């Protein structure tokens, strides 16, 4: 079944949206590519970095890293819409606990310790075997200590968002919330309507970026919360508002032109050495104005 809008609702409420599943699969593959490329990225120091770096591989990170996690969070919001159509609050929270929180705990205990161990070995901070290191995994909090959920931070954020956004989502599913969504769709239907959807992301990110520079710590990662939580809500809104998806479809060509120009400018700046070496001091007004 071909659909033209992200939020188009299938007649069969149990039918899967295959294009959403496909985007999720492609997104996970791109996340894998980005994380592998980070090892060779000359403009970033990763947990484990190769001695020889590649500007070409680094461009992969420059191009895709800024939007891949917001895309994954948006797709999670789409899935939440369909989940809440079939489940009560209690059932939904139990499902989120089993599908999100439990994998976070298991992954932190089984998948993250080898990553921290390899990092400590390569940096000369530990000399024993992995079995000897494992008890040390629970000593201190990363990066000064070892305990961390590392790249599973996405699950921690998603679980928190699932709980915090539940009252808002239930409101949007009722008549008063639907009227608010229709108003937003009308505002977004103008020639530059997509800018109204982007504006909250830009303003929140810029205001919070310098105030809370710490990253991926659930209680202090406010600049990322501002970006990812709004993307999560946007996904829910798109799934439940097919006319908004239609409006976005009508503007994709102009958005693609703007995205292409911006991406080429950033990639070129990285390639010739202007970015990030020539950027203003991090989180200064000039820095925020540039972005």
Task: Explain the overall architecture.
Mean pLDDT is 85; it is low at 1-12. Helix 1 (18-38) runs antiparallel to helix 2, helix 2 packs across helix 10 and helix 3 packs antiparallel against helix 6 (153-164). The longest helix has 32 residues, at 55-86. The protein is mainly α and 291 residues long. The chain starts with 17 loop residues before the first helix and ends with a helix. 66% of the residues lie in helices and 0% in strands.
Quick tags:
single chain, 291 residues, mainly alpha, 66% helix
- The global form is globular
- Biggest sheet overview: none
Share of residues in strands? under 5%
User: Would you list the SSEs in sequence order as H and E?
Assistant: HHHHHHHHHHHHH
Helix content: 55-70%
Q: Indicate the structural class.
A: mainly alpha
Q: Summarize model confidence as the mean pLDDT.
A: 85
What's the total number of strands? Answer: 0
Q: Poorly predicted ranges (pLDDT <50, ≥5 residues)?
A: 1-12
Strand and helix layout:
Elements: H1 18-38, H2 55-86, H3 89-110, H4 112-122, H5 130-133, H6 153-164, H7 166-172, H8 175-187, H9 193-209, H10 222-240, H11 242-250, H12 252-271, H13 285-290
Helix pairs in contact: 1-2, 2-10, 2-12, 3-6, 9-10
């Amino acid at each position: 079944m071909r659909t033209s809008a992200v939020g188009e609702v299938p007649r069969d409420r149990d039918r899967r949206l295959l294009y959403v599943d496909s985007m999720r699969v492609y997104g996970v593959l791109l996340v894998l590519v980005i994380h592998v490329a980070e090892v060779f990225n000359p403009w970033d120091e990763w947990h484990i970095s190769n001695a020889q770096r590649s500007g070409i591989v680094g461009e992969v990170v420059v191009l895709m890293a800024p939007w891949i996690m917001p895309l994954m969070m948006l797709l999670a919001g789409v899935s939440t819409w369909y989940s809440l159509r079939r489940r009560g609050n209690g059932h939904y929270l139990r499902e989120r606990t089993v599908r999100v929180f439990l994998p976070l705990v298991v992954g932190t205990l089984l998948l993250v310790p080898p990553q921290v161990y390899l990092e400590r070995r390569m940096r000369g901070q530990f000399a024993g075997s992995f079995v000897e290191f494992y008890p040390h995994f629970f000593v201190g909090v990363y990066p000064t200590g070892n305990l961390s959920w590392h790249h599973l931070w996405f699950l921690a954020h998603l679980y928190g968002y699932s709980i915090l956004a539940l009252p808002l989502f239930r409101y949007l599913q009722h008549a008063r919330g639907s009227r608010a969504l229709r108003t937003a769709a009308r505002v977004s239907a103008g020639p530059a309507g997509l800018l109204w959807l982007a504006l909250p992301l830009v303003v929140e990110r810029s205001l919070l970026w310098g105030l809370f520079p710490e990253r991926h710590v659930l209680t202090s990662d406010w600049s990322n919360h501002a970006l990812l939580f709004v993307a999560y809500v946007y996904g829910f809104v798109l799934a439940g508002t097919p006319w908004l998806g239609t409006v976005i479809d009508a503007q994709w060509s102009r958005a693609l032109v703007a995205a292409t120009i911006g991406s080429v400018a950033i990639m070129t700046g990285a390639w010739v050495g202007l970015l990030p070496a020539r950027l203003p001091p991090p989180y200064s007004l000039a820095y925020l104005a540039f972005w």
